[in-house]
Specification:
The structure holds 2 protein chains of 2 kinds. Chain A is mostly helical. Helices cover 70% and strands 0% of the residues of chain A. Chain B is mostly helical. Chain B has helices at 15-23, 27-49, 52-68, 79-98, 123-141, 145-156, 161-168, 172-194. Chain B has 2 domains: 1-101, Orthogonal Bundle (Rna Polymerase Sigma Factor, Chain: A); 120-198, Winged helix-like DNA-binding domain superfamily/Winged helix DNA-binding domain (Arc Repressor Mutant, subunit A, Orthogonal Bundle), CATH 1.10.10. Chain B is globular, with a radius of gyration of 18 Å. Chain B contains 8 helices and no strands. At the A-B interface, α1, α3 and α4 of A face α2, α3, α4, α5 and α6 of B.
């Protein structure tokens, strides 16, 4: 648990008794300090938030206007705001689509990784085929067309080309 | 309509599904939403307005406004965010109209309030609890409005920080910051009242 999660639990009615929070407070002096600082407010809020509002209370005073046009406008504006700034909740279809996209991406990534590894395994063979047929000493321009023009490759081409001749 | 008599019949359905049904004319679906949200809305409204009757009227107005404007709501979005946004805006409007929140019940000497939570059901305990509640609401009313509202939504409405942020049009970290700063000020005030601060 991190300190952010600890704050979430500390400031929720159910979370305050969470054993994970107690464990975190045991090892985190910063959060312990925070809880000490906030404890009067947390205690009062926990007690004050449990006022009993039973459902058999009268629903209204009976005299105030129950619904104003202003209130409906507020509700409509809130719905508009929500659509403009919010991200729609994931529906089952969207969730399925997201999973499919992730799986497809994973598959593409897997194939790409396989392809990357395969040329790596084949590379010495391909390079050696190219280098064995023509010697860089004899044709220096070949170096420009080499897939890997590092010093190591150049030396390797020399070895591959000349060592067998020397041995012979 | 908003009686709560039909509570629990559609309790396994999501808010958004219930809202879709309500949009199709199913009043029992909206009744289920009323059952889910009336009490937390009421707790927040009482804290904000400091008057139980006014709070009940406001909650009723919030729910009726949501029902009247149901056609404009897009069920792809979270219903609870929409409802809390309406409630908060109506509360703010009402609160500004009243200029200052009316204290429910008489004032008592702050030091008379017990520092430990009281849950027993005797008349005296209920009185003490009510007085503590009044003091708490006064302390909340003295905070900057955004901090107090964030605290009310968190503790009385039981909202996760993501919903508080959505209802208050802030970031999640901003909502947490508001709660934290508000709690710090509140703690100082309550310590002072309880006489535990030098």
């Amino acid at each position: 648990m991190n300190c952010d999660r600890a704050f979430d639990l500390m400031t929720s009615a159910d979370g305050q008794a969470d054993p994970a929070l107690a464990r975190h407070l045991g090892i985190c002096p910063r959060c312990r300090q925070m809880q000490d600082t906030l404890s009067p407010a947390l205690d009062w809020l926990s007690a004050g938030g449990t006022d009993d509002w039973s459902d058999d209370r009268p629903a209204t005073s009976g005299t105030a206007p129950l619904l104003t046009t202003q209130a409906v406008r507020v509700a409509e504006a809130a719905a508009r705001d929500l659509s403009q700034r919010g991200t729609p909740m994931p529906t089952t279809f969207r969730r399925a689509l997201s999973i499919a996209v992730v799986l497809l991406f994973g598959a593409v990534l897997g194939v790409a990784a396989f392809d990357i590894r395969r040329p790596a395994a084949d590379q010495p063979q391909a390079a050696s085929v190219g280098l064995l047929t023509t010697c860089l000493w004899n044709d220096p321009a070949l170096r420009l067309r080499m897939p890997d023009a590092s010093a190591q490759s150049v030396v390797a081409s020399c070895v591959v080309c000349h060592v067998p001749q020397s041995v012979r | 309509m908003l009686t709560g008599r039909l509570c629990g019949r559609l309790m396994s359905d999501s808010d958004e599904l219930l809202m879709r049904l309500a949009q199709q004319g199913r009043t029992d679906a909206f009744e289920e939403l009323v059952c889910r949200y009336r009490r937390p809305l009421l707790r927040v409204a009482v804290s904000k307005l400091g008057d139980a009757v006014a709070a009940e009227d406001l909650v009723q107005e919030t729910l009726l406004a949501a029902y009247a404007a149901r056609a404009t709501f897009n069920p792809q979005f979270a219903f609870r965010t929409w409802l809390w946004t309406i409630a908060l805006r109506l509360c703010q409007r009402q609160w500004k109209r009243n200029a200052s929140p009316k204290a429910a019940g008489g004032m008592i000497a702050p030091s008379a309030a017990d520092a430990t939570p009281v849950f027993a059901d005797t008349g005296l305990d209920q009185l003490l609890r009510s007085e503590r509640s009044d003091l708490l609401h006064q302390a909340l009313a003295a905070l900057p409005e955004v901090q107090a509202d964030a605290i009310r939504l968190r503790f009385f409405g039981g909202l996760p920080y993501e919903d508080i942020a959505a209802a208050m049009q802030s970031s999640v970290s901003g909502a947490k910051q508001r709660v934290r700063l508000g709690l710090e000020r509140l703690a100082v005030q309550l310590r002072h009242w309880a006489g535990t601060e030098s």
